[in-house]
């Protein structure tokens, strides 16, 4: 039986699962406007050949290759990759117009279909889909992507009556956050599970755990973001603590 990884209905199955073997050579792709193409290396670290299907979508997790419409061509869209072999995906922008005053974000999907098991094998096949972000970056944006996280501004707010912190991104770059905590008066509180704050956008992160200081206590937000190669970057900023 073949199932797609991530389907919780199969998590309790007692049959052994086939393991993912395809390594993607990056956690994100940045496509600068002045590039004619970008490449992404795939490596099969398994002992068996794998069939791989790749496509790009605009953010809908449920998009299938035939429905996904984006201004990119990816080749080869389907490949067979032998054990201990590698091959690069080639991504080309078609030239279709995209906003020039901010980054655009898409998602690159890599679906690995394992080989069919022997007829007498009691094994549940697992088709593993990985998704990583693809950022299209116009050539003449103001500022630098590496300093965008430090430009975030923060304030205390509420979601459904509970404390939350709200980040505003005044830059034309996307900022991906993985960790947010607030310290004030000896107290520490953690907020949300991370997320991406788009160009010019505002995003709220709900209270997770810890202790929230009163609105009169000076507070600092400590947050971790990811740079163009997926490396963590730690920043901090003052928090406007008077909640709405």
List its salient traits.
244 residues, Immunoglobulin-like, 2 domains, six-stranded mixed β-sheet, 18 strands, globular
Reconstruct the topology from this structure.
Layout: E1 2-4, E2 22-24, E3 28-32, E4 38-44, E5 50-57, E6 72-75, E7 78-81, E8 86-93, E9 104-113, E10 125-137, E11 153-159, E12 162-168, E13 175-184, E14 187-191, E15 195-197, E16 202-210, E17 219-226, E18 232-240
Parallel strand pairs: 1-10, 3-10, 11-18
Antiparallel strand pairs: 2-4, 4-8, 5-7, 5-9, 6-8, 9-10, 11-12, 12-16, 13-14, 13-15, 13-17, 14-16, 17-18
End-to-end separation in angstroms reads 52 Å
CATH architecture of the largest domain: Sandwich
pLDDT average, as an integer? 88
Number of helices: 0
Q: How many β-strands, per DSSP? A: 18
Radius of gyration: 21 Å
The arrangement of helices and strands along the chain is: EEEEEEEEEEEEEEEEEE
Q: What is the H level of CATH, i.e. the homologous superfamily of the largest domain?
A: Immunoglobulins
What percentage of residues falls in helices of 4 or more residues? under 10%
CATH topology of the largest domain: Immunoglobulin-like
């Amino acid at each position: 039986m073949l199932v797609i990884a991530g389907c919780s209905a199969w998590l309790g199955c007692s049959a052994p699962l086939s393991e993912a073997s395809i390594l993607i050579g990056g956690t994100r792709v940045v496509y600068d406007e002045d590039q004619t193409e970008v490449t992404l290396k795939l490596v099969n670290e398994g002992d068996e050949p794998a069939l791989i299907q790749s496509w790009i979508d605009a953010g809908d997790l449920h998009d299938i290759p035939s429905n996904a419409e984006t201004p990119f061509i990816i080749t080869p869209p389907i490949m067979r990759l032998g054990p201990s072999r590698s091959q690069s995906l080639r991504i080309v922008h078609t030239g279709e117009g995209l906003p020039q005053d901010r980054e655009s974000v898409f998602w690159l999907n890599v679906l690995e279909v394992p080989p069919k098991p022997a007829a007498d094998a009691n094994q549940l096949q697992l088709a593993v889909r990985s998704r990583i972000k693809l950022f299209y970056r116009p050539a003449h944006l103001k500022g630098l992507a590496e300093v965008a996280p430090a430009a975030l501004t923060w304030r205390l707010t509420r979601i459904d009556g509970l404390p939350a912190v709200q980040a505003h991104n005044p830059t034309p770059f996307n900022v991906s956050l993985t960790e947010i905590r607030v310290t004030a008066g000896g107290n520490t509180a953690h907020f949300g599970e991370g997320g991406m704050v788009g160009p010019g956008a505002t995003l709220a992160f709900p209270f997770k755990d810890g202790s929230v200081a009163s609105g009169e206590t000076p507070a600092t937000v400590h947050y971790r973001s990811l740079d163009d190669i997926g490396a963590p970057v730690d920043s901090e900023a003052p928090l406007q603590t008077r909640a709405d």
